[in-house]
Amino acid sequence: PSVSQVQRGLEKLTPTQVDQKTAEVVQYILMKDQKKIPVRRADLVKHVVKEYRNVYAEIIKRASTTFEQVFGLKLLEIDPKNHLYILVNNLDEPAPTAAPLVCPTNPKMGLLFVILSVIFMKGGMRGSGVRETLIWNTLRKLRVDPGQKHEEFGDVKKLVTEEFVRQKYLEYVRIPHTEPLEYEIRWGPRADVEVSKAKILEFMGQLYEQQPQSWTQQYREAHSTHSPTQPRGQK
Amino acid sequence: ENVFVAMAQHLGDSHRRFLQKMMVSGIIDDKKAKALHQICCETHKTQYAPDKLDEFIETINSKLQPLFMQIRKGMSEENGQQFYALVNTAETEITRMSSEYADNELELFRKTMDLIVSSENGTASSTDILNSADMMITKKLKKSETEHLLTRLVSDKWLCEKRGEYTLSTRCIIEMEPYIRAMYQDQVKMCYICHSVAFQCQICDNPSCGIKIHSPCVARYFKGRTEPHCPSCDDFWPHEIPEVRGLHSQSKR
Ligand SMILES: [Mg+2]
Ligand SMILES: [Mg+2]
Ligand SMILES: [Zn+2]
Ligand SMILES: [Zn+2]
After folding, report:
1. Which site among B18, B24, B27, B62 would you substitute to test the A interface, given the most A Cβ atoms closer than 10 Å to its Cβ?
2. Which segments of A103-215 does DSSP mark as H helices, in order?
3. CATH code where residue B62 lies
4. Of A172, A225, A227, the CB nearest to B252
5. Which pTM does this prediction carry?
6. What is the ipTM of this complex?
7. Which residue range(s) make up the domain with B37?
8. pLDDT for A135-172, tens place per residue?
9. Could you point out which of A16, A77, A176, B19 has its C-alpha 20 to 30 Å from the C-alpha of B169?
10. From the CA of B151, how many Å to the nearest CA of chain A?
């Protein structure tokens, strides 16, 4: 439909009707995007837009604006022929601090990267972590003994459970109902924001000579929509 | 009044980043939320006020409201910790689940909810759930399918499981509270102290009273009182008074 046809279609609808339909479209796209499924325009029209198809252009325009203004996401048409849409992050990335972690040159950051990798690979995602003993055992295998003073890291246990925790890269959390007390180590919110899980998988892939995709669950998590540190198609 | 200040507040990239993280996690505890608030503000070089998290979230909510979404605060019935969950506020029943689960799976979830709501302590055993699966109207689920579904409901954070006993997750209670109140008006009780729905809780023994109080609310209410009495009927409160968990029972430092 032409611009004037859309305009005429809109005149027949109340603003509430248009808003409601826009909200449904936004929810539908968010839901598909969470599963990394590109949205086909034909499906969108068939399942959501329905009898509002004559004002589709206006509704998708409003949905786009909502994604940018409320969610910091950009609705991109990745396939103009088949009209496929995806969402990409539209926020500025916190690049400076992320750089040393993506390619650690500072040994402390290297150590942190290893710890985050262990937590990520052992499935401690989304708020859960791994028992601290697992971390200490892994480090011992890399000849870093948390019980001894390390020439590079000093008191390793202190570095991990205090310094990295203070910097919000890690969380050191008591496991309830354990006797004697046990602690687990989790990703901290700064790691969530700054560290790319896709990069960790790449690194693990090189280490174990496997395709990153072979860790299905981690791959899905690493490429889930909103991890803001993944390079996105916004450039 | 804060709400209006918040509504007038400008939504910036720090808010948007916070919302993006909420979309990934679904639910986060208050400690994580505070840290995330700080980091989002720092990342986008906006003013950070540590005590203004709720206003910060209210600003986001003012933009989410027309989209039938909301970041809602609630308490874990188990340890009293506060959580923030991104929820769907559309009126339709079990909205977000209906796109993820088949009709018969939703029926089983509803049956599980029925069991939990009608129980005294807010739990349903796997045996009872499996039995109720035998009485389904929609396409029946095999035993293995039911077990698999329960695992899925736990990993999607709708249910929690401990030694074969299922409870509603904190996220589920936060999201579905309005639905639960509407659906189970006659059965569901509110906590006498915090006025939210109460599942895992203590109950006053006095049959003409029978108020419910969440365990963490019991702990806070009776803290320091020598003779615990029911805040409603003044009868002796016969249950064990749990200890108040430290705000960060977990934090070491
Ligand atoms: Mg996260
Ligand atoms: Mg995204
Ligand atoms: Zn309560
Ligand atoms: Zn009483």
Report:
1. B24
2. 107-121, 132-141, 156-158, 164-166, 189-194, 197-208
3. 3.90.1150
4. A172
5. 0.71
6. 0.81
7. 2-67
8. 999 888 888 888 888 888 889 999 999 989 887 789 99
9. B19
10. 16
